[in-house]
Each structure stands twice: as structure tokens, then as C-alpha cells.
Amino acid sequence: MDTWTRRKFLVTSGVTAGAALAAGAGAWGVDELLATGSGTPDGEASTLVLVTLYGGNDGLNTLVPAADPHYQDLRGDLAYAEDEVLPLGEGLGLNPGLKNLKKLWDDKHLAVVRGVSYPKPDHSHFRSMAIWQTASPAGPVPSGWLGRWLDRAGDGDPLKGVSVGATLPPLMAGTKTAGAAVRLGGKPLPDAWQRACEELSHQDEDAHPLLRRAATSLGDLRQVSRSFDAKSDSTSGGKDEEDEDGATEGNEGGSAGAESALGAQLDVVARAIEAGVSTRAYSVSLGGFDTHANEKGTQSRLLAGLDRDLGGFLTRVRRTAAGRKVVVAVYSEFGRRPKDNANQGTDHGTAGPLFVLGEPVRGGFHGEQPALDDLTDDDLRTTTDFRAVYATLLREVLGTDPGAVLDGYDKTLAFL
């Protein structure tokens, strides 16, 4: 099993800016957030909120085929009974902790995309997450998929894409620009560091293009630091302390480098939307899903917290026209194996469900449910390419040509 830490992933992701991102480049803290916005939310612009579940969430105990006898045989004591899950139809039900998502399903604002993965799935956390964040299953590339969207936006606004967390994930790193990292309850960049950024951001027209690009990035970092300044630790919403590798205390599943307080991260997103800031894409995260042991209790706790935080966030943002155009997508780097292991857990697998939720979403099932009696090397078959989800979000939410971002891939789904 991989020793899974955020910093190791950032450095080994294949994204050119990985080392700088791992070192903490970005803006720390949340203050003067309202000053970055117009004061009036833009009711015309759609907003994407991408939720990463780090560690490999068990899809079969999230979208549960409880009526399938193969599931009961494979999972043993880890299996949920039919009367325990929240029924969706087609023999499938949501984990009992996902009550808010069930209500969204009933209101036709939850899309469940089934069997999502990429060609030739990899069981490595690092390789799999790098593929998801760069949208490049064929091999390493020097930019993330939202980073390439930021490159195409071309308006020089460093707040167009924001990651709420201690470091900027590779998905937000482009070749010409990058999103902003906003740390909860942290400190602003030191004055000396900010002065250095300001001095180095001055551009010489005769300089090499790479030097001019670096100068622009440092200027963006300085601007973001001024916009998202420090705030008291009360903004953290009770966030657990992180160690230097991003692990969170008290997390049985292993945090896999994510921030622990998803509700606090979503609070920042909601405040930014209400303030009318220019951000069109947000990245937030929840860790703990590497459930090799004691899975049922750990995952049910994590999913109940995810459900609570997403439900509260969507209820809040629906109060504004801008909030009613928010689309949330929830994914993990892979699912788990259909067969349980000897430790009341499951090991690294392949395909899993992906959730898309919000007012603009056309609820229902998308993609085929992988069959438990037709496994490939004891893993679930991929029935939906993850790039089809990204292509749909790029076209329908961010208003850009998905083929230009996804190396020609432009197949979309009908959930928007």
C-alpha cells in the first residue's frame, strides 16, 4: 500500500508546478474576502464546486446494490441489507448516511454517474489521483485540467479558480497561470516573502518568455495574498490540526492529504459566492477514505459528514440567483474491490460512482452499473470514462470547449 501524503502526491503528480505547490505557494487565510467581489452576486454565471474524496471511497457501500446476491456474498459483514439503504430504484440505494442526497434525488437534482474510472485503471493512490487531476490517462502532462481551463480563460484573474486548503492541488495548475490556494485559519504570507514576490514580479520586456511567465505568476500570488488575507482561527470551523504531511488526527481511514473540515471549506465558498467574487471554479476536499480496516463505521461517519455539509451548503447558496447556478461534483480517485478483506475493510479497486448535484442538474442515473458477476481481475469494470463528466462540466458550467482542455475528448453526458 502507498504511503499516501499530500506533499508526495504534489511532487510526483507530473505537474510542472508540483514542487512549488507542495512548498505551500499560494495565499493563506481568509480575510477581506468581500473586498474581492462586486458586492452583488452574478446571477448569470455558473459556478463549479469540485469535491475530492481522498483515499479511494468505497463506491459499493456508497451506491449500494443491496438487492444483488453477489454483493451480499462478496461483502459479508460489510454488506448493507436492503432495508438499511435509501432506495433509488434499479436495485440500488444510497448509504444510510446520505439523507440529504436522497432528498436531492427525490427532487431530481442529484445525478448518479455509475462505473466511473479511466482506461487501464491503476491501484496506486498517486498515479490514479494524478490521472484524475490532470485528465490524462495516457501519461503525465505538466498541467491540471482546471489549470488548462484557466489558461484558456486568459484574463489574468488569479481568483478565477480557488482551492480552499493548505496547498494548491495540481488540478488547478496551468502552464501559463494557476488558481489561488486559500488556507483556513492560517497566516498570510510573511512580509519578506510578499516583498520578494513584488520585486520579482516586475517584468523586463526583453526577458525570456519563461521568466516573464514566472514574473506574472509571482504578481498573481501577491495579488491573491492581498485579497485573501489572514483571518482568526474561528473561520476554521473546528478544523483538526494537520501534520506536515497533511494527515489528520483521529481519522481512522487515513486522511490522504485533504483538509478535514469540509463544512468550513464550503462556508468560504458560500461567502465568496454571496460576495460576488470572480471565482468560477472551487476545489474543496475531504480525506479519510483509505479504508483497509474497520471500514463500515469509518465510511459511514465520513459519508454522513459529507452529506450534512453538502446539504447545508446547497440550502444556503439557493438563497441567491448565483447560488442557484452552482453545480457540485463529488469524486474519488478510485473505488474499492468488491470482495472484502480479512480486516473488515476493502482494498484499492477501480470504478465507482460520481455524484453531481445542484439546482441545474438533471437528476437520475447516468452510465451502466458495473456487474458483480462480470469482474476484470477481481475488479469492477469501467462503464463511464471520467472525462465525459469533465467534458460536461467544462461545456455546460464553465462555458468552454472541452476538446481544447481534454486533448480532443469532447463526449458529454446528459446530467446538465
In short:
The protein has 416 residues and is an alpha/beta fold. Helix content is 31%, strand content 14%. Helix 7 runs antiparallel to helix 8 and helix 9 packs parallel to helix 10.
Structural notes for this entry:
Keywords: Signal. It holds the Pfam family DUF1501. This is DUF1501 domain-containing protein. InterPro entries: DUF1501, TAT_signal. It comes from Streptomyces evansiae. The protein is of the alpha/beta class. The chain has one domain: Alkaline Phosphatase, subunit A (3-Layer(aba) Sandwich), CATH 3.40.720. The protein is built from twelve helices and 13 strands. The strands form two sheets. Strands 1, 2, 6, 7, 8, 9, 10, 11, 12 and 13 form a ten-stranded mixed beta sheet that branches. The longest helix has 23 residues. About 11% of the residues have low confidence.
Index terms:
12 helices, about 425 residues, three-stranded antiparallel β-sheet, 13 strands
Q: Which CATH class?
A: Alpha Beta
Alpha-beta classification: alpha/beta
Shape, principal axes of CA atoms? globular
Strand content: 5-15%
Would you give the CATH topology?
Answer: Alkaline Phosphatase, subunit A
Helix percent reads 25-40%
Q: Would you identify the CATH architecture?
A: 3-Layer(aba) Sandwich
Order of helices and strands: HHEEEHEEHEHHEEHHHEHEEEEHH
Q: What does the main sheet amount to? A: 10 strands, mixed
Low-confidence stretches: 22-36, 228-252, 254-260
Averaging pLDDT over every residue, what do you get? 82
